[in-house]
Amino acid sequence: LSNIRFAGDVQIREVQINSLNGQIANVTAQVELIEIFEDLFSPFITVSIVMRESIDYINLFPFVGEEFVDIDINTPSMEKSIKGRFYIYKITDRSYTKDKEVVYTIKAISEEFLTDANSKISKGFNGNIGEMARAFILKEGLNTKKKIAIDPTLNTTRFTANYWNPSACLTFLASSALDVNKSPSFLFFENTDGFNFKSVNAILTKQVYQEFKKDNYVRTT
What we know:
Blueprint: E1 11-18, E2 24-26, E3 31-37, E4 46-53, H1 57-60, E5 68-74, E6 81-98, E7 101-110, H2 112-117, E8 121-128, H3 129-140, E9 148-150, E10 156-164, H4 166-176, E11 186-191, E12 194-199, H5 200-204
Parallel strand pairs: 9-12
Antiparallel strand pairs: 1-2, 1-5, 3-4, 4-7, 5-6, 6-7, 8-10, 11-12
């Protein structure tokens, strides 16, 4: 189908699990549901994937907490697709629905989370806040290859990171930054476009590109 039928409608192109021992499995056919969570107050995207399968991937790999999942999905009628690699950190809600068939939920988070969790920064910084934010996203910590969007900042700051991870440094910088209107309203977050160090004022002035209407009808497909 080439048109959106309802809010949240997506086409799942590929879902692939990569295990620690080098095994790769295309599990697209076993995916029941994918939920991608973006939060203005969270530095990383999280993902929930509901699986229904009878191959027993959990024991086949096996899942030991160091697997990645590659996702490629898109919204019908829109050219943009959502692609990314996510670190699997938990398997939940496991239950057997019939003989040899199991349903469970894979919980995953952006792969940059691992870099962030394992990076501890202990030194002083001084300069323009926007420029420092760019350095923390690209060089000092996250080392991401994703797109970044950083709004101009008017002020400078000086601080010392006391064994902070990069996301903690970026959150601190956001709390101190002033936009071009001298408003202290910066946020650091990730969305499907990449990493953002943005002013709330700038976000609110963007043009609305999609509207949905709520009704009382129930859609099963």
